[in-house]
Amino acid sequence: MSSSESSNFRHEWESCLYDCGDPTPLRVSTTPENPERRFYRCGWFDNTLGRKCNFFVWYDPPLTGRTRHVILRLKEENTSLCSELEQSFMQQTRLLEEDEKLKIQVKMLETEGRNMRMSVVERDRARYFMLLFLVIAGSLYFFLSWIMSLAA
């Protein structure tokens, strides 16, 4: 492409003023025929409100068939990757929520285990004192029986 052809498509301005006098921002095409191709178009272009301005000029040169195909394929791939990323994010959120629930369950089980250990210790302590009482009571019974046998 010669420099004169190139100058038909590339302009060094950031916005354009046309007959209507309004600034014209650089836009990006989203059509399958011209994917991601930049252009200037007046905001009043093809307006149905009465005021109309027909200013339209491409900023980028026309796309070749191969370029168009590559851009469309990359956009599809990007959409697919964005979808996968969103699904991964949703899965991560679910896993974090599940992790929090499991942490709560672990704390509850630790508390329950602590309470069970305490009840086992208390039960063992009660058994020990019961056994000690029986030993003392039995010893006292035999001691008193012996004393009574000596007195008789």
TrEMBL record:
- Under what name is this protein listed? GRF-type domain-containing protein
**Species this protein is from:** Turnera subulata
As one GO molecular function, the record gives: zinc ion binding
Residue intervals of the GRF-type domain: 16-62
Query: What PROSITE patterns does the database record attribute to this sequence?
Result: ZF_GRF
UniProt KW keywords? Membrane, Metal-binding, Transmembrane, Transmembrane helix, Zinc, Zinc-finger
Q: Which domain of life is it from?
A: Eukaryota
- Membrane-spanning ranges: 126-148
